[in-house]
């Protein structure tokens, strides 16, 4: 805000506050007073308006002073400081969501993000957090996992929070309600959630229309500097400055899982910076059986073929990833790693929610509710699976670490265990928007503390033989 604009704003605000006050002589009052004086030679002098009480004058003066001071502060504060204040202020509002029904609170949060009623990050990310994956630049490795914005309603608002990437879905071919309510349960004491939503989705047609509109808007807003760039690494993604992932699911009643995923590829892949085959939700009967070696190989081949037969521009088709469960044996992980390498998968997400009840969640009164558990108690098991998969694949496939991330230190541990990128969800539900800049700042501190100049240098650091 310029000095002139700030001065005008303060004058107009002062006028608005004084308007109607008995001791403010407006133009009409001045005119009537002058008329009365000229025609009242023989009349008595006009009555004077009594001054306001001393307390009123002090209170009004203090209000005006505070308001003008506040306006002056806002007008002179740098954008970074103001942005930080706005993010921190959400900590006052977020506890109110805990008073609401869990699913209603989630619905309210999505609506707020869809309509821009969330903070917008305007501060640049620390350079140490930037990295290149799949030929695109990520300003930071922290992403929002699938499940929050199932129907791609709030992509722009969520990317604006400062995530390096956002994943929408899971999206099913046909609309479906999912499982009966209630189906989301908070284990607040443990920073965990149990859900059995069951792929509630508005369906591919609705999501495709939304993503198509966003894609068109993005194309119109591309800057000339981007258009003239000679870099082979794409700046931003198809939804804006951040990267957009689309998570595909199958309908509960579908008898041909591969056909459902192929339909998702045909309808949504042109809007995605990467695609995810979700075969690990515990809330769709039979879905996890697709993680077997034979079933997974056949499924990946059909989805790969469907993607590759489409017409693509110079940047080519979106990378294809598979999201797996944390409840897998060593043999299961070996099978998945073998398929990932032989099928040339572009990445794996590790992991989805767990059907186990890791301590201390197993003692919670709601622990016996059916569904997948996410949040803090999932961190250790999902990170262990992540590390094993990094070793099995020899670090040749980008891995996204997901499960129980609540801090920058957690994200750093995921990265050192083999994750190139990191996702969170449950922590956002409890911590709100203020969590995002805090995690990024903490992660940057961790990297710099241990002498890493980039995220990529730290990937898999705990999986590599230590130097003598």
TrEMBL record:
Biased composition (Low complexity): 31-45
Comp. bias regions, Polar residues: 223-234
Annotated ranges, domain Dihydroorotate dehydrogenase catalytic: 129-447
GO molecular function: dihydroorotate dehydrogenase (quinone) activity
Catalyzed chemical reaction(s): (S)-dihydroorotate + a quinone = orotate + a quinol
Region (Disordered): 24-56, 218-241
Cofactor: FMN
InterPro entries: Aldolase_TIM, DHO_dehydrogenase, Dihydroorotate_DH_2, Dihydroorotate_DH_cat, Dihydroorotate_DH_CS
Gene Ontology BP annotations: 'de novo' pyrimidine nucleobase biosynthetic process; pyrimidine ribonucleotide biosynthetic process
Pathway listed: Pyrimidine metabolism; UMP biosynthesis via de novo pathway; orotate from (S)-dihydroorotate (quinone route): step 1/1
Top-level taxon: Eukaryota
Signal peptide: none
Record's GO cellular component terms: mitochondrial inner membrane
Family matches, as CDD domains: DHOD_2_like
Membrane topology: Single-pass membrane protein
Entry EC number(s): 1.3.5.2
Subcellular location: Mitochondrion inner membrane
Cofactor annotation comment: Binds 1 FMN per subunit.
Keywords: Flavoprotein, FMN, Membrane, Mitochondrion, Mitochondrion inner membrane, Oxidoreductase, Transit peptide, Transmembrane, Transmembrane helix
Family: Belongs to the dihydroorotate dehydrogenase family. Type 2 subfamily.
PANTHER family per UniProt: DIHYDROOROTATE DEHYDROGENASE (QUINONE), MITOCHONDRIAL, DIHYDROOROTATE DEHYDROGENASE (QUINONE), MITOCHONDRIAL-RELATED
Protein name as catalogued: Dihydroorotate dehydrogenase (quinone), mitochondrial
Organism annotation: Lolium multiflorum (Italian ryegrass)
């Amino acid at each position: 805000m310029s000095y002139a604009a700030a001065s005008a704003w303060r004058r107009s605000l002062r006028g608005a506050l004084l308007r109607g006050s008995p001791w403010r002589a407006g133009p009409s009052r001045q005119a009537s007073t002058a008329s009365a004086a000229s025609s009242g030679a023989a009349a008595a002098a006009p009555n004077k308006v009594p001054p306001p009480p001393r307390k009123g004058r002090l209170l009004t003066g203090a209000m005006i002073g505070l308001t003008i001071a506040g306006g002056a502060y806002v007008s002179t504060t740098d954008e970074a400081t103001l942005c930080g204040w706005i993010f921190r202020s959400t900590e006052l509002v977020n506890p109110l969501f805990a008073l609401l029904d869990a699913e209603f609170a989630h619905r309210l949060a999505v609506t707020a993000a869809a309509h821009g009623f969330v903070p917008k990050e305007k501060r640049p990310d620390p350079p140490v957090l930037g990295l290149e994956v799949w030929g695109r630049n990520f300003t930071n490795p922290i992403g929002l996992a699938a499940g929050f914005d199932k129907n791609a309603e709030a992509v722009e608002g969520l990317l604006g929070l400062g995530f390096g990437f956002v994943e929408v879905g899971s999206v099913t071919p046909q609309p479906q309600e999912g499982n009966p309510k209630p189906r989301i349960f908070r284990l607040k004491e443990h920073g965990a959630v149990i859900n059995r939503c069951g792929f509630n989705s508005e369906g591919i047609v609705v999501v495709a229309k939304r993503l198509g509109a966003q894609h068109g808007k993005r194309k119109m807003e591309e800057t000339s500097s981007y258009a003239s760039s000679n870099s082979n690494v794409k700046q931003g993604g198809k939804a804006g400055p951040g990267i957009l992932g689309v998570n595909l699911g199958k309908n509960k009643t579908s008898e041909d899982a591969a056909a459902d995923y192929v339909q998702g590829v045909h309808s949504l892949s042109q809007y995605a910076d990467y695609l995810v085959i979700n075969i690990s939700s515990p809330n769709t009967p039979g879905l996890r059986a697709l993680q077997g070696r034979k079933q997974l190989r056949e499924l990946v081949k059909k989805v790969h073929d469907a993607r590759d037969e489409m017409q693509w521009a110079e940047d080519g088709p979106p990378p294809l990833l598979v999201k797996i469960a944390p409840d897998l044996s060593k043999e299961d992980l070996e099978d998945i790693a073998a398929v990932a390498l032989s099928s040339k998968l572009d990445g794996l997400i590790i992991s989805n929610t767990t059907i186990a009840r890791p301590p201390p969640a197993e003692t919670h009164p709601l622990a016996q509710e059916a569904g997948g558990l996410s949040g803090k108690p999932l961190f250790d098991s999902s990170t262990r699976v992540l590390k094993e998969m990094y070793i099995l694949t020899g670090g040749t496939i980008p891995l996204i670490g997901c499960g129980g991330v609540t801090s920058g230190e957690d994200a750093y541990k995921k990265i050192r265990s083999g994750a190139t990128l990191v996702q969170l969800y449950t922590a956002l539900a409890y911590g709100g928007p203020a969590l995002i800049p805090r995690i990024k700042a903490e992660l940057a501190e961790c990297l710099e503390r241990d002498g890493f100049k980039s995220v990529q240098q730290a990937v898999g650091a705990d999986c590599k033989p230590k130097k003598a």
